[in-house]
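Thread title: Can someone regenerate the structure for this chain?

I was given the following input by a collaborator and told the matching structure tokens would be attached. They weren't. Posting the sequence so someone can regenerate them.
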Amino acid sequence: MASESSRGLRLSPRCRWLPTLLAPLVLLALTSSQSLPRGSRVSRVGTLSQGPLDHRHLAIIINAADPLSESIGRTYQAARLIPPDQVIRVRFPPGEVALSPAVFRRLKRTVDSRTPGHVQVYALAWAAPYRVGCQSITSAFSFGLDARFCATGCRTTALSPLFARGDVRRPWDQLGVRPSMMLAATSPAMARRLIQQGVAADGTAPPGTAYLLSTRDAKRNSRSPGYGRVVAAMGSRFQVRVIASDALVGAQDVMAYFTGLAFPAGIRTNRYRPGAVADHLTSLGGQLTDSPQMSALRWLEAGATGSYGTVVEPCNFPAKFPDPGLLLSFYRRGDTLIESYWRSVAMPGQGVFIGEPLARPWPVSGALSPGNASGARPRHAR
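Best answer:
Regenerated them for you:
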């Protein structure tokens, strides 16, 4: 797999069609059978999709050989009242940044056999490993090992069946996919702060601003052509500021921060609201513990509740990174952090989702659906 130095992100010669319009990808995600991972299934039981996703639908995966993982998992179980049968322990050597496919298959069989059937999403209680072969560990747990979610060089990958799918309230019941997110922390104290931020966000309908930075880094600024659509889509529902700058310094109301740089400066000078999301488009931000660039963990340490980064060279396809408009629209309508982030990435096979999965700053009732500017109440799953 090709990689980059800390200075350069590989520019895809085919990326021009991606940053300007994601609508074709939305259509493909909704209609193409090729977007479904192998072994996925579609449930015909409509009664399984009742109500919003919550603690009853999440399982925590803990590495029992790692005291830090145990601490993170136990803290999260207590904070979110996760039932004991939804805490799954496995064992592998701690500290490794990558799992071999063989080791992962063994772990996955154990996890699958111990996961209650009603569980819809996973929380992985560690910051490393973050990778399995050519995939991120979150895509590996969600899709299984599948070469279609990998890419050699500047190529696209398979689409996620969850991309832009606001109608999927129970991903396991409906698609046979369990989205996963890393409760990524390098100390018990960091884990407690992250979890507290997520819990504190719930139902607060927080005021705040989404900052979309258009930087001078031409290779990593590939999301900026879509910023105008974000402003139009959010309208008066959410304050969005598009700023032509390489840094945001001293902002006191950050609810979202999206940029494109290898090393965003000044992120600790800002105040992040509980539930805030932040990420930077660069090649190796998902190498959480040993990146030659800024690790996505720095966002969580600065106060954000969720982030994302790629673990292997993705090239600068915007479709391999969160779409700010989709993420904010789903989040604003009352979806959880894990749902909103997963719905916003068309090709997540090379990227890791990190943060507090169940954070839900906006109540489900009365929120607007993505793209609904009429003020009508959304249609929720039964």
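Residues 67-80 form the longest helix (14 residues).
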